[in-house]
User: Which sequence fits this backbone?
């Protein structure tokens, strides 16, 4: 065992592979009931290959949510713990710390946040938005004007920005249709799409993080792609 610069204890036999600290190893490939910031505080700097972050936006419940003013909200959705912008910025700061250099983070955004702009969330961080993908849900939702059929996934990379040998799949279109059926969680994201992205930016043995895992769609994608997963949800 040895200490790194931040005082995190490493096991020599796993450090060469994952750079895991002892606590982190116990949290791998399971569903942890934990606050996402607390979970990430247990993860060593630069040890995560890729991260998916799907915040429980307060904006979704705000009257400003484009196209949905006054539309009544689903019970299941309103019962989930919400994240203020301040909390989201803290999550993104931690994601930057734990991501390895040139690692990717995928941030789910709704129409409201896409239009209002999320760039300030990345100020003073070594993170850059490098691409965006639209998920066509194959299901029509609510809306006073147009009705929602899509969500957006910002593709963010930790500096140094590199494509060659880091993004290895070049057949992924930037609009993807995938239907999701999950009665147990109102925000379940498409497993196949996330699996394709995981395969594009990680190798077998890499660790993928989801600090607000909801139904666990990213974990399912990791199992399919044979990647290790670390994640949790405050709701268990
Ligand atoms: C939009 S959902 C994630 C859905 C997930 N991507 C999926 O595919 O099922 C956001 C989740 O964040 C969780 N959450 C809210 N605040 C949290 C926190 N501080 N730490 C961890 N999870 C939190 C909620 O319980 C909710 O399940």
Assistant:
């Amino acid at each position: 065992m040895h200490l790194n610069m931040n005082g995190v204890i490493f096991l020599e036999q796993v450090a060469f592979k994952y750079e895991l600290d002892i606590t982190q190893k116990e949290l791998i490939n399971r569903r942890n009931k934990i606050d996402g910031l607390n979970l990430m505080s247990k993860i060593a700097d630069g040890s995560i290959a890729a991260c998916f972050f799907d915040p429980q936006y307060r904006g979704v419940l705000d009257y400003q949510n484009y196209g949905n003013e006054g539309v009544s909200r689903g019970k299941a959705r309103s019962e989930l713990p919400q994240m203020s912008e301040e909390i989201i910025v803290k999550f993104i700061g931690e994601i930057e710390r734990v991501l390895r250099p040139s690692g990717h983070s995928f941030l789910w955004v709704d129409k409201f946040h896409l239009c209002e702009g999320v760039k300030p969330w990345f100020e003073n961080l070594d993170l850059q938005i490098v691409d965006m993908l639209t998920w066509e849900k194959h299901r029509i939702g609510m809306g006073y004007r147009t009705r929602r059929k899509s969500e957006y996934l910002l593709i963010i990379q930790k500096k140094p920005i590199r494509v060659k040998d880091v993004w290895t799949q070049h057949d992924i279109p930037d609009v993807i249709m995938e239907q999701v059926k999950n009665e147990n969680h109102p925000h379940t994201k498409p497993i196949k799409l996330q699996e394709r992205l995981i395969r594009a930016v990680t190798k077998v043995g890499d660790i993928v993080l989801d600090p607000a895992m909801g139904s666990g769609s990213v974990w399912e994608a990791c199992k399919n792609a044979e990647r290790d997963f670390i994640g949790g949800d405050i709701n268990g």
The first strand starts at residue 2 and ends at 3. The pocket of S-adenosylmethionine is lined by residues 35-36, 54, 56, 80-81, 83, 185, 187-189, 211-215, 217, 233-235 (CB under 6 Å). Helices lie at 12-15, 22-27, 36-41, 75-79, 85-98, 111-116, 191-201, 217-225.
